[in-house]
Amino acid sequence: MPIKEIIQQKTHPVKIWTDEIENATREQLLNVASLPFIHHHVAAMPDVHLGMGATIGSVIATHRAIIPAAVGVDLGCGMIASRLSLKVEDLNEALLKKLFDQISRDIPVGKAQHRDDQVDKITVQPFIAPLGSLTERHPELLKRFGKKSKWINQMDTLGSGNHFIELCFDEEDYISSMERGLKSPTLEKIDEISREMGLHPLTLLVITYSGMDKSKSSKSLLNKIKKELEDLAIQKKASVYPSLKFSLNIVVVKIISDFFKKIEYFTYWFIHRLKLSEYFTGS
């Protein structure tokens, strides 16, 4: 994607990768770019918007300095992209509207979902026991968050602010779903079953949500994914990162697969703290 605008000033330039930017956001970017320890330039991504202290959706490289306000408080925020077997020609306007409506119905958004009367108890229930076990082992968490914390009700919601779900197509016209703002629920049951089978949790979820049964073709697919995971040493990483950030993404893919029964295999990209290649699985 090309740079849309470069704002030159006496200190450091601001390079913008979007056509539209609010005046307040522009001023905030210029303020950050005027700091003496900025390295080369400040970059503004397509999702740029006004933040508290530093601009959300910006990249701020510094030299011999750290800006805590630029790190922000949303340290668990991440992005996930899933490449599907769909292509652009498989979609039309009517079908896209159905997908939009279904995603809107099935995935909670906004802060209102945190209220007890708004939360789907069936959705939340599976997380309560694992979180209870976690707080038993680490009681200091209760002191920090409180016994009646809202954190359980936030599981598997999209949240608010700049969190989004979108369908995109790549250079080869393949469709991908992408989400930002995912949380990391402790999927201990899936971890437990996966480890008993000698698999990474992702493998079990791909099989579970791809609309396939435990047939020979499913076992063949499972073995293929397992081999890829082993080749990339993700099995080892699972012991360090047992709860990868993919639960909400799985819901999106499941919704899409309900409309397109031919989808049998998904490629996942986990875009977070480690290198892209360390999370990559696929054909």
What does the secondary structure layout of this molecule look like, with pairings?
Blueprint: E1 5-7, E2 14-16, H1 23-33, E3 38-49, E4 56-62, H2 68-71, E5 79-87, H3 93-106, H4 121-137, H5 140-145, E6 164-169, E7 174-180, H6 188-196, H7 201-209, H8 216-231, H9 234-238, H10 247-259, E8 267-271, H11 276-279
Parallel strand pairs: 2-3
Antiparallel strand pairs: 1-2, 3-4, 5-7, 5-8, 6-7
Helix pairs in contact: 3-10, 6-7
Verbal overview:
By secondary structure, the protein is α+β, with helices and mostly antiparallel strands. Helix content is 38%, strand content 18%. The chain has eleven helices and eight strands. It has a four-stranded mixed β-sheet, covered by helices on one side. The protein has a four-stranded antiparallel β-sheet with strand order 6-7-5-8. Helix 6 crosses helix 7. The relative contact order is 0.12.
SSE-based structural type = alpha+beta
Residue share in β-strands: 15-25%
Compute the number of helices.
11
Radius of gyration: 21 Å
- Characterize the overall form: flat
Side by side, the strands of the main sheet go 1-2-3-4
Q: How many distinct beta strands?
A: 8
Number of domains: 3
Distance between the termini: 25 Å
How much helical structure, as a percent, in the residues? 25-40%
Uncertain segments of ≥5 residues (pLDDT<50)?
181-191, 199-218, 228-252, 259-283
Order of helices and strands: EEHEEHEHHHEEHHHHHEH
Which sheet architecture does the biggest sheet show? 4 strands, mixed
Q: Provide mean pLDDT, rounded.
A: 63
